[in-house]
Amino acid sequence: MAVTDEAITKIKDMIVRGELGPGDKLPREADLAERLGLSRNSLREAVKALSLIHVLDVRQGDGTYVTSLEPSLLMGAMEFVVDFHRDHTVLEFLEVRRVLEPAATSMASLRMSEEDIAGLRTHLDAVPEEPSVEELVKSDLEFHRLVARGSGNQVLCSLLDSLSGPTQRARVWRGMTQSNAVDRTIAEHRAIVDAIASRQPDVARAAATVHIAGVEEWLRTSLAPEDTARPGLA
């Protein structure tokens, strides 16, 4: 194991064991290095790496602290990695969405408040009668974010947020090339809200599955068989 990796592991273990918790300040560099049996150099590199993925917060002139460790904060690192995806993997991101979003929608049908459900309906009602592709995609992203948040599961919500970027261009492309994309998207969104409002998790799951699978199937058939293995098309 590389020296820096060992240092990262040792700091992580301190957090996992509860020796350091969210918001706690790390001991002085010299003291912590001695305690963990590390050189100050390797400890510095470990702190730098853990600050990049939002586990530690280095405050100049104050010290280094463990962050809140909230899922939304930690998932930011995953979102950073996801941004480097190659275009031909968009279908794989859609496959993951097809697994996770129906689960989030099912949970939302049991956990969303009546006020939040009314907010979903208000959001859909605010979409212009003839929205531009940009307006439709913006509304679509926000709709799915609200549903994910309604699941009450921060980890699931953060995961879905991180998957939104890679599929955004597919949404735009669909809006530009599929003649009924606007009507179909809005109708499917309303079906999802109705299922959530009826407090029927299985129906909500099915409605979300149909919606995501429709986008996935459209993308599959839009790509020529010989081009599906090549980047630059999605």
Automatic annotation (TrEMBL):
Keyword Transcription: yes
Listed SMART domains: FCD (SM00895), HTH_GNTR (SM00345)
Record-annotated HTH gntR-type domain positions: 1-69
UniProt keyword DNA-binding, yes or no: yes
Top-level lineage group: Bacteria
MF annotations from Gene Ontology: DNA binding; DNA-binding transcription factor activity
Alphabetized SUPFAM superfamilies for the sequence: GntR ligand-binding domain-like, Winged helix' DNA-binding domain
PANTHER family found in the cross-reference section: TRANSCRIPTIONAL REGULATOR, GNTR FAMILY, UXU OPERON TRANSCRIPTIONAL REGULATOR
Protein name per its UniProtKB record: GntR family transcriptional regulator
Organism, scientific name: Knoellia remsis
